[in-house]
Structure formats: structure tokens, C-alpha cells
Amino acid sequence: MNNKAKIAYFSMEIGLSNNMPTYSGGLGVLAGDTIKSSADLKIPLVAVTLISKKGFFRQDIDPEGRQIEYPVNWEPSKYLIHLPKKVDVQIEGRKVCIYAWSYKVRSVTGGEVEIIFLDTDNKENTTEDREITAYLYGGDDCYRLKQEIVLGIGGVRMLHALGFHINKYHMNEGHASFLTLELLIMSKRDVESVWDERWVWDLDAVKDLCVFTTHTPIETGHDKYTYDLVKKVLGETVPIEILKTLAGENQLNMTLLALNLSKYVNGVAKKHGEVSKSLFPGYEINAITNGVHSFTWTCGSFAKLYDKYIQGWANEPELFVRSETIPDEELWEAHIKAKDDLLSFVKQTNGIELNRESLTIGFARRFTSYKRADLIFTNLERLLKIGEKWSIQIIYAGKAHPKDTPGKDIIKRINEIEKTIRDKIRVVFLKDYNIDMALKLISGVDVWLNTPLRPREASGTSGMKAAHNGVINFSILDGWWIEGHIEGITGWSIGPKPFETLLTNTNDAADA
Asked: N or C: which end of the chain has fewer CB within 10 A?
């Protein structure tokens, strides 16, 4: 047990490998990269998440092009070590017992980060409570609230039970905000020492302990719960009236709770920092642009090239400024190797033989309306004319949340369009997107396409991963791309400059 860890990093999802389906998308993969980088840098970190024994879901595509979801049943004991400690939390007036599993991320530098996976699936709990840590982002508001109680309150208690002495708690998005309530209880003053019930809650002591990263650039994306539900599920360990002053008068807003009880808050790109300030005026919200773990997201052919020309690149990404010393022909050879690997994978999984000589466009991410995965098909006639003049092919991958009907409709539409244009433009949808597939895609395509509605792309990191592999970005100016974009050099922009478009003034046709 690495009891020297002084920083606790809480995240609802953490993506490390396909074998451990404890992630759904960008937030979890970012968390995994953060943990790997912390291990590289020997940062004294411990991470906390949920075990998600039935994962997010396994995706299939039916003959009509519709997404079908299946549970992902995996066996934690194959990869994790079960820990002997247990803690409990109160949920709906019941004691819910929480056990934990341990996984250690070890770096070649000698650094190590332990991840604690919380698990309610034990015989001491009711059947209902055993399912709390089963599905990632599953169920209704009540289910999500229970999960967030286990993560936040249960997570802090588990760290203490395991002997960790934490100086800073980092909340990766608002899901973990209930950890602040446990810290409030731990730092509560005796009423005799302050002589007023209002002053027993030491808010400043909790703020000194907490850091918060927000990833959500739209109001509707922040978790909110009615106080009736909160009172029913969580109870009043911290009085509802106190919660209302910290998390919102009408509903408990998890982001607002974290904002009010954190000394340092950041968004995940410069533009996102500005958007977050407009959503929550009066709060000091900084901007730290997301990054990626270079070694994880560099394919074999490019890693070999970097080892030859940029020694030390994996631990010192700033050395990539030397990439211009790599001969063009060797860069092209590395790219063709990655492209061949991708096209072989497509043939193996989908039975479709794509053309190495065709311009290959890639689009892979969560399927939801604002990502606009089907924007390229807005003017189908023009696209087909381009396809007649220059040979192009498009590869898609990604999942829509089971309850995101518009996102699922986009998947269906893309698969329907594929059938109508396959004689002129090949379109492939790879099912069951995962980390290994992502590496093949971001390294093997020629152009990486990104078409979100501004300013809803908080950061985005897939384009950074593509850049590690010499793949050109073609993207809306939003998120990290505002900072990484140099027209015609690092890639190309789509649509107007970022300050020209607000959320209420978007034009799909112009962007298309």
C-alpha cells in the first residue's frame, strides 16, 4: 500500500485498458492518462473510482444500422487485488457496505500510482445495493445519486481506512463532489467552541483541501438532484439548509457544491475556462488545457522513429520541437505502416477492404448531438462530387449513451447513408469502440475530423493523439484546437473563428 500518497484523485471513470471497462469515453481516458503521467513524474497520488462490474456497455450494430447494447461482465480478480478493509455509508437509511480493489500503475521511471476501485457487490448488502457499482452511468437520478454517495463519501472513508493521509482532494468533474460533505463532517467544530450552530461547519478548512476540475461547458450537463431525493437517499448528515447555501437553493447542483468548497478550480482549455466563468459568474475559474500520455498514444512505427531521432520523447514531450529533424520519407513510411495496420484491422473486423491510396478520414468519439458526427453528409451532393474527383473513405467509431436517442439516431443515419453511397465513397462504422481501437484509428487515418458545436467541446484530446502520429487535424475551432491550430501547418480549421460564434448562433450549413 502506497501510504505516502498525499493527493487523492477522484473520478467516476478511469480508462486504462480494454480489459478493465471502467470508462465510457474522454473523461475516463483523460483520467487514465493523468494517472499514468503522475506515475511517470513520481507524483504522490492515489486515485479513487467505482468498480463498474458491468461496465458501460458492449456495442453491436444491427442490420438496420442501430446501436444495440449489452452488459460487459468482467472479472476484477483477474486484474485487481481485493483489499480486506471495508467501510459503510448510509443510503436511504440503510447501511451500505463498501469493499475495495487495488490496481497499481507502474512507470519505467520507478513511479507508482495506486487506484482504489470501490465495490458494493457483497453479501452484506441488499440485492439493490449490490448493483450500485455495477453500471457506469446507468439507471435513473436515484441510481446516479447513490453512486455519487459511494464515490465521494465512501471514497474518503476508504482512503482513511486504508491508512492514507491526504493533503489534497482533486475532484475530476462534479460526480465526486460529495467528498466535500465528508470533509465538512470531519472538520466540524464543537458548537461550544463557536457558540453558534451556523459556524460549526468549517468551510475554509474544506476549501484548503479541495481542487476541482470542471469539464462541462453547458448548463444541462451538470448533475442536479431535487432536495426531496437528496433527503430521501442521503439523509441530513449535513443539514439541507446548509446544502442549499453551498449547492443551490432549488436543486443540489454537484458542480456548484464543488465550486463553493474548492480553493482552486479549473476548466480544461482556455476557451472552456471563459465559458465556465459565464456559466458560473463570480467564481474564479482558471484554465489548464487537457493533455495526453504521449507513450500510450504513439503507435509502434512512430515510437520507433522518435526513439531514433528524439531520444527521451516519452518522458519529455517538449522534445517534440525536434520533430522537424525527422526526414520526410521516414515519417511517410511510419504513417503508411500505421495506415496498413488500420486497414488490416478494418478488413478483419468488418470484412471491408479499403484502399491504401484513398484519403482516409477518421471520426471516433462519443456519439451525441453536439459532436455532429454526420455533419460531413449535410451537403451529400457536394461530398459525392469530391469523391468522384479524389478518392476518399471515412472510418467511424463511437458509442452513444443508451438513453441518448438523438446520438443513437446519428449512428443509424450514418449506417443508412453508407448503403446509398458505398459505390462512390466507402464509409465504415467500427462497432464497440475502445482504447486499442482508438490508437489504431488516430494513427492510421490521413485526416482526423472533429465537428462539434461551439463552444461545447470543453477540450477534446483525440486530435492531440492524432498529432503524435503525424495525422492532420481538420476541426472546428473549439476546445484545445483553438490553441493548437496554425492554419495549413498543424492542420486546417472549419468554420469561423471561435469568437465569431456563440452557442445561440450556430450554422450547420456554413460549417458543413
From this structure: N
Contact assessment for residue 230 and residue 443, using Cβ atoms and an 8 Å cutoff: no
Signed CA dihedral, 105, 27, 460, 393: sign only: positive
Name the DSSP letter for residue 431. S
Query: What pTM, to 2 d.p., does this model score?
Result: 0.94
Give, in order, the Cα–Cα distances in Å from 463 to each of 38, 369, 401: 22, 19, 22
pLDDT per residue over 385-435, tens digit each? 999 899 999 999 999 999 999 999 999 999 999 999 999 999 999 999 999
Whether 229 contacts 245, CB under 8 Å: no
Per CATH, the architecture of 300-511 is what?
A: 3-Layer(aba) Sandwich (3.40)
Q: The CATH number of 7-287 is which of 3.90.180.10, 3.40.50.2000, 3.30.1330.60, 2.170.130.20?
A: 3.40.50.2000
Q: With b meaning 16 or more CB within 10 Å and e meaning fewer, what string describes 250-272?
A: ebbbbbbbbbbbbeebbbbbbbb
5 three-state secondary structure = coil
Per residue in 180-236, pLDDT tens? 999 999 988 876 676 666 778 899 999 999 999 999 877 667 889 999 999 999 998
| Three cell numbers, residue 87 | 467501510
